[in-house]
Amino acid sequence: MNIIVISTIAMGGLGMFFAIILAITNKKLYVKEDPRIEKVLEALPGVNCGACGNASCHDLAQKIVKGEAEPHDCPVGDSEVTENIANILGIESKEVITKVAIVHCGATEKIRKKRAVYIGGQTCRVADIIGGEISCSYGCFGYGDCVTVCLFDAIEMVEGLPVIDLMKCTGCGQCVEACPRNIISIEDFSKEKLTSTISIACNNPDKGAVVRKICEVGCIGCSLCEKNCEDGSFYMDGMLARIDYSKVYNSEKWDLVIEKCPAKTIKKLGKESKCVCVTHP
Q1: Is residue 185 classed as helix, strand or coil in its secondary structure?
Q2: How far is CA 66 from the centre of its chain?
Q3: b/e per residue, 44-63, with b = 16+ CB within 10 A?
């Protein structure tokens, strides 16, 4: 019994000794966190989405205070967030460049041509590894991986295609990362264009004859869009038409381009169409 008591007292004593040592060490080595970090953290949206490349909003807040990141580096934060952080740091706020996410596929589930019967996992990632069932190697699978990763319920699948709600989207960019077919892109945009814009609803760079066989709304590379709009708003990237969103929106010319597109690949978008979302770099 005496041995047990002595052992217990000895272990308790050792525990007390090490606890005191740890407490003293912690007090001597403790580095007080800059109070601005907590303030910046409170100013950030706090969704911890990882779109900024950091593990958490707290990590980003630390880097912003240390000067290793900018106040506008939160993709989810808007101009108000940037302004608040700049005020906390006592620096001048830089203008936040607005961007939008655009879907580059117009083939709905009904018109997609299939090459096989697919019975694998019902996710875009799995289907992309196996090959899926649709004939187009660049089109949307329609399984909604982008919907699954969206933290803000800003995407829904309509007729087999993702539809992005402008009012709900925070621009975290997770949908872009989740899409194995790269049919969602982030484009520089100005706020005044949000009510009137268009997109090339195709991501297939193959020749027109090949595209025609597998998709009735795919870009055939005719370059009529480029020819009908001389200001460079439309250009050809190989056989696939592209839009330079830095150009000034010209309603008359862009409407003509839509009208003249033989495959009806160019789609008009706007707030009511819910096909674009605001993001921030």
Answers
A1: strand
A2: 26
A3: beeebbbbbebeebbbbbbb
For 212, the enclosing helix (H) or strand (E) is helix 208-214
pLDDT in tens, 70-115: 888 887 777 788 889 889 988 877 766 667 778 899 999 999 999 9
What are the structure tokens assigned to 16, written together?
């007390």
Burial class (CB in 10 A: 0-12, 13-18, 19+), 37: middle
Radius of gyration of the chain (CA): 27
Contacts of 206 (CB under 8 A, 6+ apart): 138, 239
| Alpha-carbon gap, residue 124 to 194, rounded angstroms | 29
Per DSSP, helices labelled H in 131-197 are 145-149, 174-178
What is the DSSP code (8-state) at residue 191?
A: G
pTM above 0.85, yes or no: no
Domain ranges of the chain: 35-89, 99-279
Q: Which fold has domain 99-279?
A: Alpha-Beta Plaits (3.30.70)
